[in-house]
Structures are given as structure tokens and as C-alpha cells.
What we know:
16 helices
Amino acid sequence: xxxxxxxxxxxxxxxxxxxxxxxxHLVGEFEKVDEKATPxxxxxxxxxxxxxxELSATPRTGIHRxxxxxxxxxxxxxxxxxxxxxxxxxxxxxxxxxxxxxSTIRGERRSSGWAFDHPVYFYAQFSKPFQIEKSTNGEAxxxxxxxxxxxxKVYFSFPENETSELLIRVGISPVSMKGAQKNLEEELAxxxxxxxxxxxxxxxxxxxxxxxxxxxxxxxxxxxxxxxYHCMMAPMLAQDVDGQYRGMDKQIHQAEAGxxxxxxxxxxxxxxAWHPLMTIIAPEKTGEWINALLRKYIEGGVLSKWPLxxxxxxxxxxxxxxxxxxxxxxxxxxxxxxxxxxxxxxLSSTYRPDITASHPEPRAAQVMPRHLxxxxxxxxxPADSVGxxxxxxxECAYYDWCIAQMAEQLGEDSIQQIYTQRSxxxxxxxxxxxxxxxxxxADGTWKAPFNPFYSDxxxxxxxxxxxxxxxxxxxxxxEGFVELMGGxxxxxxxxxxxxxxxxxxxxxxxxxxxxGLIGQYAHGNEPSHHVAHYYNYVRQPEKTQKLVDxxxxxxxxxTPEGIxxx
Length: 566
């Protein structure tokens, strides 16, 4: 599953244990009190069916344990035709199920959503023989049959005189049904559910021990390790045990020794703090992830900014992968080709779909931004030419500074000079009369009317925010930023006003991502995350300390709603 995005891709192979009659609208109902989750284990009681479901996993497989009431027929729905979020354009394209024997099935599902072309293959074994009662394609199907359909649902029953417990082992693969079978045979060759749970718990415990803290308050410990657990949700392994994976060119590749393919790089969300944290606690993984990003560049022709299941989604701002590359290079993390990293960064910062060479993955041209032409020719992005111009302009200035640091590392002086100059273009969005970063029109005038509290999620110069939140994105040149604001005292006064301003957000179509407000500082969304630390640069570290303490005390909890903005 995807964590935190609010988008319904993944979760493709759905199983639902139930009792009673088959119908087209089966749903499991439960109470939160009947739900339990720990790292590597999930349990819930479906109250309307009186069935307990327990789940655990290995890297490429899942195991299910369903406990049915003794006096009811044991039923199971396999749903491959679901549409989780039609408002996002997510739809089922095709699905099939093959019966291998009386206790084994295999199949695939292909969907289109945020990932526009997303195949998933599976191989599933049941702990007891099944009977197919019905499918969306017709009546009962005999063993050995093939079921196919765009919205395929298959209903299974199991012998009533058997134990009330049903186990299911499922291997999945981005490559093939054969790959899913290999994954299952390699990683889960037994039926010991409790052993899988214990093994998963041990792995999670080892992972979470990477940082050890001490506190007399259990709530502090629980909160910290919950947060650290959340830090390990992604990127996700996307390669079979035999080394095969699906590339950004939609071809099947064989990984060479030492290479691992990953997916779910939420780069605009993670370059700010998560990736820097990983350079400290998982430097070897950082090298692996960068290699995966560079391989996507080779296969697809441009750096990804939110790759999902071998698809370019094109989501969010600019070319944030270069920040991850630069951070690793400047910290001496190895295991990847720095010259290739610089090449990828430069191309991605100058990419134009209309003039850049064609790429193996046609979606790349469709999802890349249209703003880079203006950065290169006008030194700012006109608000009347490209939407979200201020956000793109400010972030591109930072990414260009990152490229300059990469070039300096490799002694590429001419590239360093070009990108150092481009990194200063943030100044072209600053309006001294208001003290905010504003949209500028093609003729050089400021876009009017201007209201720093105003937000429009679709039609604005700002991504998921307003001028209050976005005017602070100059993390690469704080000294120059302070000077631009009018000096230290003026900068401090403006920064103080951010945290003390009214928390009102104006606009009929304001972004729902503006959450976790302290004044107009929005900790529930990415653009604000660095701002509390600016006080350290103007000799008022006590204000940073106070704010950081307030943020972690009031905006992080080990509860379902415990991360502001998710």
C-alpha cells in the first residue's frame, strides 16, 4: 500500500473472508477496538461475518490466517476488479486467475491510475482445498480453468468439516506469475504463521535499534519509535528473488550482482529531511537508492520525481532527485557513479519535451514540467505563462544550487558557475514592498491582486500553500536571503510574524494540505519544514529550540491521526 499520499494505487490483490450468501456488495465491518497492529503483524475481527483475520509478511510475500466461526460455511472473495478511487482516474484494465490445482491459484491484475500502466502478478496457495462457487464471468468453474475479466471477482468455498482456520500464502511480483511463484517458494516455504510474525518482529526490532534513546516517559519512547517506524515505509523493494525487475522502459531487466530495484520514491516529500536522515542511519541503503534512481534515468531518459511501479507520475515540483544526489555526494557516500549523477541532474534541469530527444518511456515527456524554458531565458517563471510559478521557481533555484555543489565535487567549473548563477534566481520573486515571494507576469509586473493568506489548490502561483508559507524557501543561501529581506533585524521581525500571524486560510479552493498551523507556519506540509531552524542562522537559537519542542509535543503522536498532514 501507499502510505500518506491519499492515492489509491497498489493494494491490488484483495481477499475478503466472509460467511453467508454471495452478493455483489460484500464489505467487512469492524470496530477500532477489535483492531491490532504491530510491526510485521495485523489483526482485525470482521464483526458482520464473525471472522478474525490476521496478516504478516516477508519482503515479497504475505501470509493470511482467517479463523471462521465453527458453524458457518467458510467463504472467500478474491477481488481483482476493484476501483479504489475513481476520482483519481484509477481503474481496472484486465485480470485473470488460473487454477493450478485444488489448493493453488495464480494470476495477474493490470490497472491504470496514478501509475498509468501497473501490472501485478500473484501466486497463492491455500491450506485446504477449495471449490469455486461463482465468478463474475459465470457459474462454478472446474479445476484447470482460466478466468478472465476487466472487473474479475472470484468466490471460493472450503469444506465445512475441516478446521475453522484457513491459511493463505501469497507471493507477488512486478514481472510474472512465475516470478511470484519463485518469490513464494524462496521466502515462504512453510505454513507456520507465528514464525513469520516472529521473524518480521525480529527484523523490525533490529531496524529500529539503529537509534537508541533513553527516557523515563514511556509516551516519549513510544512516540519516537513510532516515528522511526514511519521512516521505514518506503522506498519499496521492486525486484524478484532471481533479480528480475520491470524498468521505466517497461522492459524486463536482469539485475547484475549488487543492484536492487526500488519503487515509491516520494522525492519532493523526502529530500528535505528523510533522505538526510538516511545518510546518517542507513548510508549503504542511500547508495542503493541512488543507483536505483540513476537506473531509472538510464531506462526512462530523465530523473524521476515520484516514480511508482515503473511509471513516471510527474507529481510535485521541479527535479528534487538532484537534492538527494548532491547530499550523498557531498557527504562522501559511494556506491554510485557521480559523473552519471551530474549528467542526469543537468539534463533533468534543462529538459524540454518539445526539443529533448525522445525517450523509451513516452510518459516521461507528458509529465515533465513546462517551466524550464523560462528559467533558462527569462531567469524567472512568468505567472501568466505557467501555473504554480513561485513554487517551481524557488525550488528550482535550490535544486540548481545542488547541481552546483555536485559540479564542484567533480571539478566541473563551468557547470558550477552556470548553476551557481541560476541558484540566485529566487531573488526575482521577492517583492520588497510586501516582503513576500510573489508571482511576476511576463512583462515584469507583479500579479495582482495579492493576498498572502490566499490559497487555491489548482490555480495559484503556489503549490499546496500560500505566500506566507512559500516565501521562506531559500534554504541554500540564508545569508543572501537575510540581506534580501533587509538585514538581520528585519528578517527576525518577519520570521516572528510568520509564527504569530492569524492561522486563517482564505480562498474557496484552498489546499487541504495546509495543516498543523502555528500562525501561518504549516508543519503539516513540506514547504514549511525547515523554517523553524532559520533562527539558528540569525543568532536566536533559543527560538528554534522552543518551536521544535512545541512541534514535537503537539503535532506528533502514536495514533492513527498522529502525523499532522499525514
